[in-house]
């Protein structure tokens, strides 16, 4: 389990992580989503013990990251964004070295190497020097290093960055399997990654935690103020009075909060009504029942927010722009 209580990090006058609190439970994969410079890496570094929080408290597996640093750090496997690998060693020698650093008992080292090599599918490159490896294999060696010693907690900073589609899928499979029995936290820019492997999502921007929930929970929150649009045909020349009449009828529907009406840009003699609606079962049907007797309804749509919409809602820009 990872627990952050009001954790902040300042570099000089700049606060890059601002009073962040959350818990990640065993058997859970938490995705950390945010634009460039949001504070994801800094937060992961504070959890891993690579850097200390300026204020607040980090606890991992029940141990305080400052006062019980050595034992707390042993509970963690950390894959940094750029894993520090020793290029001149071969994979076997590097992993053996990493196992010793992690205090894996000497008699267990061979078994541990076998285990992580199989988990990360490194058999084919076991005797190769690290400088000869492709980026995908280097990343998997980094992941294998993080898995050594069977840590309870796995922290992964952009684990699939720079990998090809097959490698991405394989790495996600390893993470998903590990997440079934461990506590996993990963940072990513990739929404697909979050939907494929994360149970909950934390959205961070400018050091502040904006939301943390399951993808479905976030969707529901954003849907609280969701939008239904409808197109209705009106007799020629009646658009102004029709718009007013339509607006008052729509506002009578329970759950419709605001209505904005304008002439359709695509079709003559059509109005487009945009309604902000509360999250409520059957609201589209209620709107349709109100409109159909008096209006020629052409289209009615309610768009469920995607993770991209949710990110937009909180961060104010699409993911693609935020990482450009
Ligand atoms: N050692 C440091 N000294 C000063 N500022 C730092 C230091 N490390 C990080 N920062 C600043 O802290 C902010 C957060 O950086 P961080 O790397 O945690 O963001 P991030 O969300 O991981 O971004 P990215 O997605 O680009 O990796 C940035 O503005 C960064 O410049």
Automatic annotation (TrEMBL):
Keywords of the record: ATP-binding, Nucleotide-binding, Transport
Origin organism lineage: Bacteria, Pseudomonadati, Nitrospinota/Tectimicrobiota group, Candidatus Tectimicrobiota, Candidatus Entotheonellia
PANTHER family: ABC TRANSPORTER, ATP-BINDING PROTEIN
SMART domains the record matches: AAA
InterPro entries in the cross-refs: AAA+_ATPase (IPR003593), ABC_transporter-like_ATP-bd (IPR003439), P-loop_NTPase (IPR027417)
Name the UniProt record assigns to this protein: ABC transporter domain-containing protein
Keyword Signal: no
Organism: Entotheonella factor
Family per similarity comment: Belongs to the ABC transporter superfamily.
Pfam hit, one: ABC_tran
CDD domains: ABC_DR_subfamily_A
Residue ranges constituting the ABC transporter domain according to the UniProt record: 2-231
Keyword flag Cell wall biogenesis/degradation: no
């Amino acid at each position: 389990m990872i627990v952050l209580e009001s954790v902040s990090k300042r570099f000089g006058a700049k606060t890059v992580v601002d009073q962040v609190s959350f818990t990640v439970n065993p058997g859970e994969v938490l995705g950390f989503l945010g634009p460039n410079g949001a504070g994801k890496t800094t937060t992961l570094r504070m959890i891993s013990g690579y850097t200390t929080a300026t204020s607040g408290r980090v606890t991992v597996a029940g141990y305080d990251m400052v006062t019980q640093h050595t034992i707390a750090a042993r509970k963690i496997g950390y894959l940094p964004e750029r894993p520090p690998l020793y290029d001149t060693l071969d994979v076997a020698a590097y992993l053996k070295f990493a196992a010793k650093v992690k205090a894996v008992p000497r008699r267990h080292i061979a078994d541990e190497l076998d285990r992580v090599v199989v988990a990360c599918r490194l058999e084919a490159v076991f005797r190769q020097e690290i400088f000869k490896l492709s980026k995908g294999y280097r990343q998997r060696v980094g992941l294998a290093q993080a898995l050594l010693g069977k840590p309870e907690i796995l922290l992964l900073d952009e684990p699939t960055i720079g990998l090809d589609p097959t490698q991405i899928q394989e790495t996600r499979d390893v993470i998903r399997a590990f997440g079934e029995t461990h506590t996993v936290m990963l940072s990513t820019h990739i929404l697909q990654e979050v939907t494929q492997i994360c149970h909950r999502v934390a959205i961070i921007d400018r050091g502040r935690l904006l939301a943390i929930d399951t993808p479905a929970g976030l969707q529901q929150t954003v849907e609280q103020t969701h939008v239904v649009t409808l197109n209705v045909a009106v007799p020629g020349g009646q658009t102004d009075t029709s718009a007013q009449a339509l607006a008052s009828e729509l506002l009578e529907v329970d759950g419709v909060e605001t209505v904005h009406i304008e002439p359709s840009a695509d079709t003559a003699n059509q109005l487009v009504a945009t309604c902000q609606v509360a999250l409520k079962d059957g609201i589209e049907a209620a709107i349709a029942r109100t409109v159909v007797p008096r209006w020629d309804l052409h289209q009615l749509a309610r768009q469920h927010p995607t993770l991209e919409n949710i990110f937009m809602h909180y961060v104010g820009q699409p993911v693609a722009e935020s990482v450009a």
